[in-house]
């Protein structure tokens, strides 16, 4: 509600400034106001998704969006809430607007419950090359298969590579190196990715 109120107030201020400075057609005038409101609201969402490292802001954003099954799913994954994960996943896979995301949702759901059998075929359906490569290597690590440096070099998103290296080092018993890579992953990640990683690491490695 706060950001919406800010957007409205900004639009009102812009309304008076436009009236004073320009003699615009009413349609153009109100179009400008609409664009300003939309831009402010969109920027707020983009910051929470991709830019901020403020955990409380991200969590507050997710809690406000709990009626949306996608955000409820993300919140459940991060906070180890099995009921939320199951309920929201079932809703997501029945909605057509999320159809292109079914493979990613299914892979995330399966990895959450550590159900990796037969997951290779589902990963192959992921359209995003970056995500597909990430999950392919994640599955290999979880399956205790060898991952080559050449394969890791294909991971272009830095936090993803560091997260994979952390998991790989942990499985190989290199706990100190794993800790360094986890720290690097958190440094590189932002927004929802940062929130997911930090919650996962806190739950798994903090006594």
TrEMBL record:
Asked if Transmembrane is a keyword of the record, the answer is yes
Segments crossing the lipid bilayer = 31-51
Q: Which domain of life is it from?
A: Bacteria
Q: What are the alphabetically sorted keywords of the record? A: Membrane, Transmembrane, Transmembrane helix
Q: Indicate what this protein is called per its UniProt record.
A: Uncharacterized protein
According to its UniProt entry, this protein's organism is: Niallia nealsonii
